[in-house]
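Example record used in the benchmark description.
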Amino acid sequence: MNNKNDEKKERIWGMLCHLTVLLGITGIPFGNIIGPLIIWLVKRKLSPFVNEQGKESLNFQLSMTIYVLIAALFISMKIGFIFLFILVSINLILVIIASVKAYTGENYSYPFKIKFIR
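Model output (structure tokens):
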């Protein structure tokens, strides 16, 4: 029974690696990076699953931050707003998918990510 509880805790921490990205919506500067970073740093050595999901989440959020900054450069040309809307929508949808997958114990790999952390 203890093993089952440990597995469930790992899945919850893996899910939180993805869900804490939503701190960025609350207005915390770079909350989308800080949330998963804290969980990953605290739990990465305790669980290979959390280590993998934390790296996935961080790599994707770092990539999305770069994409958003590039889109922001195009705001003066009016197409930046469209790019920003698309990026935010993709980010939200993929974070929800990743969270659900992690909670079920599946490793999730984000598309469109740059591997900063290996």
